[in-house]
Structure formats: C-alpha cells, structure tokens
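Q: Entry one of two.
A:
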Amino acid sequence: SDFREFASFLFGRGKDGLILALEAYFDDAGTHDDADVVVWGGFVGSVSQWAKLDAEWRARRDKPFDAPEHFRPPLPRFHLSNCAMRRKEFEGFTQPESDSLQYEFRKIIAESGVVGVAYGIDRRAYDRIVVDPEAREFLGDAEQACFGSCFRGAFQQARKHYPDETEMALAFDWISNPTRKAKLASIAERVEQPPDSIPQIAGIFWGKTASLMPLQAADVMATENYWAAQAFIAGRDFNERPHMAHFLRNVECVGYIMREQEIRDYMRKYGYEPAT
C-alpha cells in the first residue's frame, strides 16, 4: 500500500539503520487568506498503531457501510468537511449516513491508539498585534507560527505517551504552492533540538493526503479543531458539534488556541513588544 511504501521510506531514514517507531502526521485547516482562524493538527503514533489505522481506514473507505440497503461505492478518500456538508464525493448522502460515516472514521482513530495535538491561532488578532518588522521576520505569519507549534506539540505528546522511543519522523500534508511550501519549510529548517532531547527528529517529509490514510486522519483533527476554534473565538459553545464532544471523550489529544493575550505573551517570550 502507499502507507507501507511511505513508512518503509521513513524507516530507512533512521540513524544507524534503526527502524523508526514513531511517526507524526499533520494537516492544515483555515489556511486560505480570508480565514479567521488558522489550524495545524494531527497525530503521533507508533508504526503498529499507524498500520492498524491504515488497514481499517482503507477497509471503511472501500466499503462505507456494511448494511446492503446503504450500499455506496468506494470513496476516493475520507474528507471530513466534505462528508459533514455532504458535497463532492458525499453528494447524495443522507444526514444520518454522513453522521454514521463520521462516527466510523472517528472510531478508527480512537481504537488505533494514536494521540492528537492541534494548534490554532486567531489570524486577525495575530496580524493586528504582530506588526513589528523584526518580530514578523523572526516569528513569521500566523500560519508559520502555528506550523512551528506542531513540532513542540509532537515532542510533548511523544515524551508523554512514548517515553522509550528515541526517534520520530514528521509528515505534513503536501503543499502545491511553492511560495507557501518554502515559507513553511523555512520554519521546519529552523527547528533545533539539544543533543540530549528525546525524541530526535529523524526526518521531515511532505505527503499527499489522497494516498496516505494517516494524513486523512490528521485532516479530521485539523478540521474539528478549526470548527471548534471558530466557535470559541466567536464566543459560541466550544463543544457545539456533538461529533467534537465525542472525539474529545474517546481520543487522547490536546488542543491549543492563541488569542489576543496569548499572542502578546508569545511575542514577549521572544523579546518583542506587541502592537497596541
């Protein structure tokens, strides 16, 4: 499968020929220019956990419903927002079918045992506060700051849930826009780890969501947190979506959001003064 080929590629990047036991996959949401919130989110897991998720994800993708009366042809991929809104490959699905399918893929994530992390930033507040040219150059724009936080979150989750593992590969959703990809790659290249930090980054890669089931799972994490962050910033109920509430009850995950005060604290942490 594509996952096994990709995983084999990652494993071969281990130091001294060692097999990598940890992989983290991240996807984005709200990265269009007019979005109020930008989010990067995903999961950290062992190779065995990812292999289990990959196999079950493919099986459900190829046979969306078990009951013959609800037969649907195989899906090209599972995309949460399309499923929730019943558009594109999910056009013609009933609301109960959409809800059932969201539940089934969410259950696959939960039963695999991978652990999640997501970061969201109030983009409008960030652009209003982070205006100092030097700060902007060092911290980047809202998406760069959010993207960089994925590394910190992945390390924290790895140390907490996989304390014996020493190496981890990180894979991010493929970005076709060369300018945007270069912008994010510049953040990845700046990530520094002390020699004794565990786990060490064994590699950073870009993969295509359509062919990698772990990245489709990361899409669920990013999209759910994007919707929740939108509601949170707008002052609505954080757990407005029942699907999100179920997700939080059944998946080990952490989520962070930077609003105005957190953005100001973030700037001061690096020695910059926020705009008033």
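Q: Entry two of two.
A:
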Amino acid sequence: MNNTEFKDILRFPRLDTVLMVEEFIKRYDGQFKKRSLWEHLPKKMMYQTFCVIIDYLLYSRKISIDSESKVGWI
C-alpha cells in the first residue's frame, strides 16, 4: 500500500481488533465467506474497517480466499 491508498481509509483498526479478526479466522478456518465472517465476529465494527483488516491480512499473506470465496488461515 502506498500513501495514495491511505487517503481513502476513514478509520484504521486498532491492534486488538486486528488480532481479534485473526483469531476468529484461525478458529473458523475456511468456514465463512468475507461478508458472513464480518457478520459473525464477536465484536461489531464498520465494514470498511473490516475490509482494511482483510486487505492487510491478504497483503501479509496470513490469509487466503479460495475458489468458493471462503477465507482461510495460512
């Protein structure tokens, strides 16, 4: 991500929120699609914030999205 991509982000997630999403994905590896995953999180957050976390996890290669659009932990 470069600086021009940051200007569109309204809220940056806190570390505890990123870790919560990571743990949830580890626990339910491959069971949810992106939107459903967001709906089942134990703590509610804005969808845009959730998308920033997912983009970060994809970029850092901690997660992948399979051919059925399900999110899995690597």
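A: Comment on entry two: The longest helix spans residues 15-27. The mean pLDDT is 92.
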